Amino acid sequence: MKPFCLLPLLVLLGSFCSLETANILCLVTTAKHSNPGWSRPLFDALLAKGHTLLVVSTAPNPEPKKQVDGFLYHHLRNDYDVMKKYFLLEKPREYMDMATLNQLVVWNEVLVGSCRSVLFSDTLSSKMPELTARLCSEFDLIITDVTQGIECLMDFVNGWRSKPVLGLSAGKLTPGLLSLLQAENTINAARIPHYISPFPQKMGFWNRLHNHIMYYTEPLIRLMATRLVLSNITKMENIFPTLQLVLLNTHPTLDYVQNLPPGVIEVAGLHIKSKPSPLPKYIRQFTEMFIDGIVYINMPYIQYMNGQGLEAMDTMISDNPSCGFIWNVEQLDQLPAEKPNLLALHVDQSLQQDILAMQYVKGFLNHGDSFSLQEAIHNAVPVVVLPLKLEEFNNAQRVKERNLGVVLQANELNQKSLSAALKRILNEVHFASALYQAQLKFRTRPISPLELAVWHAEQLIAEPQFFKNFAQTEALAQNFFVANSLDVLAAPFLVLLAAVVALGNFVFVLFTGRSKDQLSNEEVPKKRKKSKKCSKNSSPMNTTLNLDVTDITEDLNEELLEGEEQLPRGEEKLLEEKKVD
């Protein structure tokens, strides 16, 4: 019996021994405004599972403080800043608003600017020999951040087409992302607002018209501008890699409820820590001093808001002395004035999650990026959103529709409006109720987003062909008319058009008693018959009587009812003889 007692132990040991570690390449080249550090938890989880990782990333300070076995990191610079290039004016210092269609052009320019910043940086030039040697290794899986729909460094990876490629996207589902996945486009422009538009979920006619223009204009911009510029930087077939699977940073509590292709897996909250870390003592002591709780502020560029941003913040803090304010001043040019209820800090992403997880936090002021809003929903903290660029306007509209907070526009910001918005989220009960429901849906999942991401990554390593049938290349080969069934709809449309024309003609005849053709024929004046000239030897005729009789005959013929015959030629001759007599 003793050998049987060891059977469970042997099975357990065998299961551990059967696990094979993989060599994984991780490429992250997105700019800072796209938060390239959000993928770090996935890399850490794969490293903890025993896999070997080579990470080439533009994330700020992602390198571990101490050497970790199986982890090799190369940091690249991406200094592209879309805010400073298009939305911020230094002299005079102000925020520049931009129309939605213009922002669509900016969105596609981000691809070019970000890629150029990475490929032409001094950091990449100095590390090129070492990187080239590293990237020639055999990899079992390639993970790439395709938030903007491209991958700039894939050109340096030899033989990547024979390896499974897993895409990470920090944004929403886009047609460009679906084309990389070779999946059917399930985005309906009549129901799904464009991912950088401020349109409501229930769009009217003009919103739907504008929405269709944006969806149909974007591929033209990519074809006629973006691809032409990128073709001069790197090879086109490498910059738009074919993906087997995409991990998407969306969830129905904040994003749309829509049909997702089987190759798209939602992992919103991937970056959120399962358990917050203890806060430093001085922060805890500060939070315990205020009976109305804490308001956390993370609003970079607030100093550009019509010259009133900093004054509005100062007024808001002064008007609420029983509230404590923790202000992330990392990107401010000058520190705010000291106040007894204000704590100014340089806060990174990890510390922000720890602050929002405190039970004392009653409000969160931000610009509406997806990561901050997901953290607010995860901790049921109402928000004041001031959107400034691109997808932030779409996120702000979803916040407004679902009562997750209050939305302010840049042209509405002043000393009174910011304080009024804060009072609303602190005092109105319906925000807390809506956030409780959103938190419950966001947290209640069969499996955590991080575990789901790790499972799919390891499944893709073990069975590279497992997700092969998820792609639909035949759908991509269809032209616009076939893909949208316009050729099929043309036949019934023509039949319906013919039926409408026939019905219109029937109604016209029914009410007028004559068809349109008969009416047009009757309206044409008939030419008068010329009288025959008499010969010189004939007797003189009464010319006046001849003309009168001819006119009478023609008038009689014109006044005959429809279906009756005209006067026979014999009667006409009799009339002429009577005329002569």
From TrEMBL:
Residues 526-535 have a biased composition (Basic residues). Gene3D superfamilies: Glycogen Phosphorylase B. Coiled coil: none annotated. The keyword Lyase does not apply. InterPro entries: UDP-glycosyltransferase, UDP_glucos_trans. Residues 1-21 form the signal peptide. GO terms for molecular function: UDP-glycosyltransferase activity. It comes from the Eukaryota. Pfam families: UDPGT. Keywords: Glycosyltransferase, Membrane, Signal, Transferase, Transmembrane, Transmembrane helix. Belongs to the UDP-glycosyltransferase family. This is Uncharacterized protein. It comes from Drosophila erecta. The lineage of its organism: Eukaryota, Metazoa, Ecdysozoa, Arthropoda, Hexapoda.
